[in-house]
Amino acid sequence: MGRFSWKVVMGLAFLGFSRSVGWALNKGLSFPLLSSYTESAFIKGTILATEGIIGILIPPILGYYSDKLKSKHGRRRPFIMIGGTMAGLSALLIYLTYSMGVPLAGFAATLGIFYLSMHLYTAQFRALMPDTIESGERGKASGVITLLEWAGNLFLFGLTGYLIAKATELTGKEGSISVLAKTPYLKLPFIITSIFLIGAALFVYFVVKEPKAPDVKEDEGLVEYFASIVRNKDFLKFYAAQTLWWMSFEFIAIFLYGILAYILYGEATEENVKMVTSLGLFLMALFNVTVLIGALPGGILYDKVGRRLSIIIGGIIFALPQIWGITIRSRGEIIIALAIAGIGWGILVAASYPVIGDLLTRFKREAFTGRYYGFFEATRSLPVLLAGTIGGAIVDAFNGNYRILFPLGALMVLIAMPMIWKIEKLEVFS
C-alpha cells in the first residue's frame, strides 16, 4: 500500500459517481414506470426488491473470489470493467423494453439484469479504497468518494427533472413521467447513464493501478469466511447496524412517490403518483445536495473525533426528521425534513464506509477486503429486499397509509446506534 494518491481517489470517485447515476436512474424512474403497470405497493416493492436479493448473493461471493484472483490485470479491475460494461448496456435495455410495451414480467426481468450487472463489481469497487489508502487517510478518501457518489444521484435527478420540464413545454400538459414518456426525452437519462457506467469502468481499468496482491499463506474457504464473520462480534455488530439504517433509508427511497402522493393528495393512486413525479425528483435532488454537505465533514469527523461518535452523530440527525414525519402535512415541511435528513445521511454514509477496512487492519486481515466489503454490500442490499417487501405489505395492511414508514424507519436507526457504540476496537489506532 503506497502513499495517499489523489489520482486513485478521484478515479474511484468517478466510478462511484457513475454507479450512483445508475442507481439514481433506478430510484428515480423505476417506481413511476412500474406504476404504469400496477398500483399495488406490494407488487412494485417486490419487483424493486429483486435488487436486494441479487445484492445479498453476488457481492459476498464475487468479493471472495476477487481476493483470490491472481491476474496481471489486478484483483478488482477485471470485475469492474466487465460489470460496468454490462450495466451500461442493460440500462439501455430498460428503456427499450418499456418503450416497446413489453409486459410487466418482461420489464421486471430487464430490471433484474441491470441489478445483476451492477452487483458484479460492487464489492470490487468498495475494496479498492482500503486496498490503496492507509487507515489514517481513509476518512478523507471516503468523504471525497461519498461526495462524488451522491453528486451522481443529484446529476441524474436534476437531469430528469429538467427533461420533464422540457416535456411539459413541448406537450403543454402538466409535468409527470407520463408526459416525459410521450416525448423523445425519456431515452436521454438511459443513454447518459450508459455512457457514464461504461466510461468510468474503462477509466478505472486503464488508469487506476492496483497494489500487488498480498501473499496469503493460510487462506480460508468460502464457508469458513462466512462463519468467521458471525464469530467476530465487532464485524457482526457493524453489519447488523448497517442493515438497520439502510432499511430505514430504503423505506423512504423506494416508496418516496407513494409517500408524497399520500401526504399531499390523501391516496397513492397511479394518477396521484404521476402528479408528484416532478416534486419527487426535486426532493431527491435536494436530498442529495444536503448529503453532499454532510459527506465531506463526515469523512473528516471519522478521522478526527472518533469512528463511533461520527457515525452516531449522523444517525441521530438522520432519524430526527423521520420522527417529525409522522405529523408532516405540507410541501414546505417535507422539503425541510428531507434537507435535514440528507445532512445526517451524508455524515452517516461517509463515516461508515471506512469501518470494514479499519477493522480488517485491526484484526490483520487486510488481504480480505473483497470478501468483507462484499458482505458490507450485502448488508446494504438486504434492506432493499426487506424494505420493498415488508414496507409494501405494511402499507397495504394499513390501507395504503405510506406515512407509517416514518416511525418504523426512525426506530431502526435508533436501534442501530448502540450497536455501533459497543464496537470498542473501532477507534483510532496506529
What does this structure look like?
The protein is an all-alpha fold and 430 residues long. The chain has a single domain (6-207, 222-425), classed as Growth Hormone, Chain: A. 78% of the residues lie in helices and 0% in strands. Helix 1 packs antiparallel against helix 9 and helix 3 (50-68) crosses helix 6 (122-132). The longest helix has 34 residues, at 138-171. It starts with 5 loop residues before the first helix and ends in a 9-residue tail after the last helix.
Summarize this structure as a short list of keywords or feature phrases.
78% helix; Growth Hormone, Chain: A; mainly alpha; transmembrane transporter activity; MFS_trans_sf; 430 residues; transmembrane
Q: What's the short version?
A:
The protein has helices at residues 6-34, 41-48, 50-68, 77-99, 104-119, 122-132, 138-171, 177-181, 187-207, 222-231, 233-265, 270-275, 277-304, 307-324, 331-352, 355-362, 369-397, 405-421. With 430 residues, it is mainly α.
